[in-house]
């Protein structure tokens, strides 16, 4: 998953904004530093918003500088999308997990699933797990 940011020089600083994520703004002391700060700000905001159960706008803007989102954050977002209107309890039962264990999978600050757990999730949703290395 990739969000694009804009970087604008303002005096001796570089301002960063994400058109798809209006709550993410940061700055850097150089263009390179601005890109580093953009990734940190985007991922921090996504982790916070996901943890609080907020709706995350999908990336649509395709200009500017691409910032890739870390896999653990993308996993949490995808699990919520796949679950849809089903409860976490229902999915946990289907996976043979406790409610708390499943809840951690949807929290990017706590998720750290094994490959076997990912395979179970794929089966429950009728999907095939593909891992690109």
What can you see in these coordinates?
The protein is an alpha+beta fold. It is 44% helix and 20% strand. It has five helices and four strands. It has helices spanning 31-51, 71-83, 88-95, 99-105, 115-124; strands at residues 2-10, 13-18, 21-28, 65-68. It has a four-stranded antiparallel β-sheet with strand order 3-2-1-4, covered by helices on one side. Helix 3 (88-95) packs across helix 4 (99-105). The mean pLDDT is 94.
Topology, please?
Elements: E1 2-10, E2 13-18, E3 21-28, H1 31-51, E4 65-68, H2 71-83, H3 88-95, H4 99-105, H5 115-124
Antiparallel strand pairs: 1-2, 1-4, 2-3
Characterize the quaternary organization of these chains: single chain
How many DSSP-defined strands?
A: 4
The gross shape turns out to be elongated
Order of strands in the sheet with most strands: 3-2-1-4
What sequence of helices (H) and strands (E) makes up the elements?
A: EEEHEHHHH
Helix content: 40-55%
Major beta sheet, specifics? 4 strands, antiparallel
Taking pLDDT < 50 over at least 5 consecutive residues as the criterion, the unreliable ranges are none
Strand content: 15-25%
What Rg is obtained from the alpha carbons, in whole angstroms?
Answer: 17 Å
Q: Mean pLDDT, as a whole number? A: 94
Number of helices: 5
The helix-and-strand class reads alpha+beta
Distance between the termini: 16 Å
């Amino acid at each position: 998953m990739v969000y694009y940011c804009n970087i604008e020089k303002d005096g001796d600083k570089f301002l960063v904004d994400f058109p798809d994520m209006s709550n993410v703004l940061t700055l850097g002391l150089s263009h390179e530093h601005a890109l580093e700060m953009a990734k940190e700000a985007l991922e921090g905001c996504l982790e916070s918003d996901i943890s609080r159960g907020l709706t995350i706008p999908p990336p649509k803007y395709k200009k500017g500088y691409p910032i890739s989102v870390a896999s653990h954050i993308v996993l949490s977002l995808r699990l919520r999308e796949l679950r849809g209107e089903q409860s976490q309890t229902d999915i946990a039962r289907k996976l043979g997990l406790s409610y708390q264990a499943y809840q951690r999978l949807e929290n990017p600050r706590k998720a750290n699933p094994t490959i076997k757990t990912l395979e179970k999730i794929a089966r429950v949703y009728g999907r095939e797990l593909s891992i690109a290395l």
